[in-house]
Structure formats: C-alpha cells, structure tokens
Amino acid sequence: MVKFTADELRRIMDYKHKIIGNTSVLAHVDHGNFSIPKRDLNVSDECCYSAENLKYCRQFIRGIGETVTGDKLVLRGLKFHGYHGVKPEERKLGQKFLIDVDAWMDLREAGNSDSLTDTISYTAIYSIVKDVVEGAPHNLLESVAQQIATAVLSKYTQVSAVRIQVGKPHVAVLGQVDYLGVEIVRHRSSTVTQS
Fold first, then answer.
1. How far apart are CA 115 and CA 113, in angstroms?
2. Of the candidates 39, 114, 137, 156, which lies 20 to 30 Å from 131 by C-alpha distance?
3. CA–CA separation, 126 vs 149, rounded Å?
C-alpha cells in the first residue's frame, strides 16, 4: 500500500472535488487508495500501486493545484545585460536577457484605497530582477530564475507565488528563434521555507 503525505492527500482530495462533476473523471480516491488512469500519465493504469511508477504518480500529485489564479502584479519584457552561461564568451562578453514576472497577491485593498502603501511598487520588483540579472554570473538560467523568485518571496510576505521567465534572445542554434529560456513557478510554502 502506498502512503501519501498529508499535503499529497489534500491535493488528491481537492483534485477529486474539482473534477467530480466533469464527465471524464481522471482520478479517484477510494478508502485511501489513489490511482490515475494511463491516459493521464502514460504509465500503468494503477500507477500508484507500482513502486516503479510511484515517482510519476507523485509528480502528478505535486502538480495538482499548482496553477495560480487571482490578482497579480505583472512585469513584462524587462531587458538587462548579464554574464550568465557556461561558455567562456558568455562570461566575458555577456548578452541580453529578457525577463517576465508575475507576482500573485491580493490587490483588493489597493484597488479600494488607491494607495501605493497597500501594494508593492513595480519598481521594487524591477530592482530585484535588475540586481540579480546584472549581478554575479550564474551558469544556468534556472539558477537566475530561482534567485529572482526567492528574493521576491523573501522580501515581500504579501506575495503568495511568483512566475519567472528568463529568456536568451541571442543563442547559438541552427535556426531562427525569438529566444530560448526557462520558466518557473514558486509558491511561498515551497520556496521560502527551503531557502
């Protein structure tokens, strides 16, 4: 029998509740047992009963409820010159980086009061991104994004989650691209406590 953490069980129950009215029920919880049909994971029908496939099941469970909705601050198309990358020329010459940020927080009070003290200034988040991208070099874009996310969540307790996208428009690939990059979503409960 597979044992799940309290958080995993909570996500399973939330997921079951959200889809129960849907014509295609994708998962079920029955007397503490949980399974996900093959079409959702490309693994065996009872994936959670197989130790071999348990990691895929847990990955699916962690993803349940990860979509963030609600009010958010939006910063798009931030451009900075930085020295991130694993190649020597990236560290020596640097390159342009494109950053998008979503910061989820309740904006009702600011909407009602029309006061900057009831929200976070866009320029404050912009400054965090600028400091990270123009600061100490990182090998990976994943690390750049993680540092931005951690800094925002650590500094502003009213932010419940962030989405950070870091793009490189000038990459050595055979073909035309607007940019290549990474996107991460971090929640206060899973990021700040682990930093």
1. 5
2. 114
3. 12
Q: Is 105 helix (H, G, I), strand (E, B) or coil?
A: coil
What is the pLDDT, as a whole number, of residue 16? 46
pLDDT band at 171 (very low <50, low <70, confident <90, very high): confident
Catalytic annotation present for 18 = no
As given in the structure block, the two tokens for residue 135 are 């600061």
List alpha helices for the chain, DSSP H.
6-19, 38-41, 54-63, 88-93, 108-113, 122-133, 141-155, 188-191
Distance, in Å, from the CA atom of 4 to the CA atom of 47, rounded to the nearest integer, reads: 14
Burial class (CB in 10 A: 0-12, 13-18, 19+), 188: middle
Check if the beta carbon of residue 134 is closer than 8 Å to that of residue 158: no
Per-residue burial over 69-91, b = 16 or more CB atoms within 10 Å of its CB, e = otherwise: eeebbebeebebebbbbeeeebe
Query: Alpha-carbon distance 136 to 151, whole Å?
Result: 14
**Tokens 């989650």 correspond to what residue?**
161
Active-site residue identified among 38, 87, 155, 168? 168
> Strand, helix or coil at 31?
coil
